Amino acid sequence: MRKPLILLALASSLILFSCGEDIEFGSPVKPGQESGSSGDNQEDDKETTTVLFGNGEKIGDITYVTFRIPSLVRTKNKIFAFCEARTVDSERGDIDIAYRVSTDDGKTWGEKKVLFSDANHTVGNACCIYTSSGRLVIVFNWHVANDGKLTWPSELGVTYAQNVTHSRRVFVTWSDDEGTTWEKPKDITDAVMEKAWTWNAAGPCHGIQIQNGKYKGRLVVPCDNKYSGTLPDGRDSYVIYSDDDGITWNKSKTVKYGNESCVVERSDGKLHLDMRNSNSVESEGGKPYRGWSLSSDGGETWNGFHVDESRPEPTPASLGTRGCQGTVINYNPDGAISSNIVFANPANTTTRKNMTMRFSVNNAENWQKSKLVTANYAGYSDLVVLKDGGVGLFYETGISNYHQTIAFLRIPKNSIQEYFK
């Protein structure tokens, strides 16, 4: 019998693997196998990779086939690493939101825990923001079970009538004490989805709180929707936003041909929406490269879909779809929005391999330097600026497939700042 909706705290720690300069960072250890040397002995100026989740591992008494869809957020005293814990190798089915917590800036990690589970339904796509008020906000998705064993209402309170309207739903929750307690999840589907849409996916990655200008304080969560037909032409990117610290939400205008997306604030006050490219029409940007769009009104409208041919992404027919998720952050170790932007994705036009970080000193107008994290298989990812000025990359990777493990790469400040010179 599956566990009910649960909210859990985290505890203990994980050992780290300290890498020297000749090691290929991001190369995974085998699933379920932890890395070698103790985090207590690692040097702060060395890059380290820690496998946080591996296929076939247990949380409690549940064995999860795979872990996918990484998401990161740093609060005042912690880093939270969220993902989907899947009992099936599919985006629909019995899926829970799992996480681990670090209290030492990503050097060591607490044990795996499940945050939300709703019987045999899907609970996933955790998209997180830590706000200036000290609130940790999570927007996440729910999807009806696909095995026919339905009980209404679900443990998250979804009714049969709601499921008929939208079998894919959007929830928000928050914690005002860094994850010790959580607000009861609130269904915001009607505010952030059109009736004709059949899909919403939050992120998958982190969201942001706008720091400057007219829209200062606004929470912005990147999303995508599906409205008709089949992939790729029936999917857009958009954002949802809140001006009251996550209590109520609105939706932006959509960007045609986008898909999974991530948003970053620029130093000129504009928002940059970075998108997986789902366009199949080559004359309109249907190429194996990232899409992007800009907003000058806090994310309410966007200036169309543009293609960046300096940043490849995989579009193999074998995937059954185009592109792959990527992630972007403003590198602001002092807390002030800068023109320095970091981006990560599997930079390969034919397969999900070659996790690569790119660095821009001019608000993502172009990308001056790059770093190959691993030449192995790699998939979805998320980024975070560490308290000490370094950067953390939480990414799917593996030797036999792109989601064999989810690893956390910790890059120290001195290494990151070399890429902005």
The dominant shape is: globular
Low-confidence blocks of residues: 6-42
The number of helical elements comes to 3
Question: Reading side by side through the largest sheet, how are the strands ordered?
Answer: 1-2-28-27-26-25-24-23
The structure class reads mainly beta
Measured between the Cα atoms of the first and last residue, the distance is: 56 Å
In percent terms, what proportion of residues is strand? 35-45%
Overall pLDDT level: 87
* Main pleated-sheet profile: 8 strands, antiparallel
- Using DSSP, what is the number of strands? 28
Q: What is the oligomeric state here?
A: single chain
**What is the CA-based Rg, rounded?**
20 Å
Helix content: under 10%
Descriptive key words:
globular, 421 residues, mainly beta, single chain, 3 helices, 28 strands
How does this structure look, described?
With 421 residues, this protein is mainly beta. Helix content is 4%, strand content 40%. It contains three helices and 28 strands. The protein has helices spanning 160-165, 189-192, 413-418, and strands at 17-18, 48-54, 58-59, 62-63, 66-74, 79-86, 95-102, 113-116, 122-130, 136-143, 168-175, 186-187, 199-202, 208-209, 219-226, 235-242, 250-251, 255-256, 261-265, 271-275, 289-295, 306-312, 327-330, 341-346, 353-360, 369-385, 391-398, 405-411. It has an eight-stranded antiparallel beta sheet. Strands 13, 14, 15, 16, 17 and 18 form a six-stranded antiparallel beta sheet that branches. The longest helix has 6 residues, at 160-165. The termini are far apart.
Write the layout of secondary structure elements.
Layout: E1 17-18, E2 48-54, E3 58-59, E4 62-63, E5 66-74, E6 79-86, E7 95-102, E8 113-116, E9 122-130, E10 136-143, H1 160-165, E11 168-175, E12 186-187, H2 189-192, E13 199-202, E14 208-209, E15 219-226, E16 235-242, E17 250-251, E18 255-256, E19 261-265, E20 271-275, E21 289-295, E22 306-312, E23 327-330, E24 341-346, E25 353-360, E26 369-385, E27 391-398, E28 405-411, H3 413-418
Antiparallel strand pairs: 1-2, 2-28, 3-4, 5-6, 6-7, 7-8, 9-10, 10-11, 11-12, 13-15, 14-15, 15-16, 16-17, 16-18, 19-20, 20-21, 21-22, 23-24, 24-25, 25-26, 26-27, 27-28
